[in-house]
Amino acid sequence: MPSRQRMKVLGITGGVGAGKSTVLEYLEERYSARVIQCDEAAKQLQEPGGLCYEPMVRLFGPQVLLADGSFDRKKIADLVFSDRELREKLNGIVHPGVKRYVTKEMEKARSSGQVSLLVIEAALLLEERYDLLCDEIWYIHTREEARRRRLKASRGYSDEKISRIMAAQKPDEYFREPCQFGVANSSANVENTYEQIDKGLREHGIL
């Protein structure tokens, strides 16, 4: 029997508004990739019964719960915004929980023998050392004016809010240096982005 192909793990990162979802959707649809978005995983783990739920209730108390038992996310955001110690405690619950979830999902995908490409997307991919789990890290980069346009259209953000978010993010060089490949995603023609993805996967031997 031929040997089973080893599952490749690709990490995707980039600033807000860079269009990472476009890349993830293409990888999922064109290459049948198993995609894990860490922000979505975090939300799932904070639902009642999730890994992070009880530790967060102990941290904040029942005053942050809505009538259905789920968290009042706005109330939590207000609490941690002005309290660095509380924010660090929350991160100490959520970030390790998400990594445990990702690791478990990776092992399930690998043992199934049905997944040839698994993709992990996270804003803090580098900070949380997901690079140690990945074969490669790709950086999705987009010109500022394109990012601003997308954030206004998709999320309704004001110029002031966009400027505040961008000022809080790491500079372009921070992402470029440790990444093995970059996808320029500024063009209005999405086919340009798709061609770069195809080229990266082919030339880097990922598929």
Structural overview:
With 207 residues, the protein is α/β, with parallel strands linked by helices. It has 2 domains: 1-33 and 115-207, P-loop containing nucleotide triphosphate hydrolases (Rossmann fold, 3-Layer(aba) Sandwich), CATH 3.40.50; 41-113, no CATH class. 51% of the residues lie in helices and 12% in strands. The mean pLDDT is 93.
Principal-axes geometry comes out as: globular
Provide mean pLDDT, rounded: 93
Q: What is the makeup of the main sheet?
A: 5 strands, parallel
CATH superfamily of the largest domain: P-loop containing nucleotide triphosphate hydrolases
How large is the share of residues in beta strands? 5-15%
The quaternary structure here is single chain
**N/C terminus separation:** 20 Å
Q: How many structural domains can be distinguished in the coordinates?
A: 2
Count of helix runs: 9
Q: What CATH first level of the largest domain would be assigned?
A: Alpha Beta
SSE order in H/E notation? Answer: EHEHHHHEEHHHEH
**What is the strand arrangement across the widest sheet?**
2-3-1-4-5
Indicate the CATH topology of the largest domain.
Rossmann fold
From the 3D coordinates, which CATH architecture of the largest domain would you assign?
A: 3-Layer(aba) Sandwich
What is the number of E strands?
5
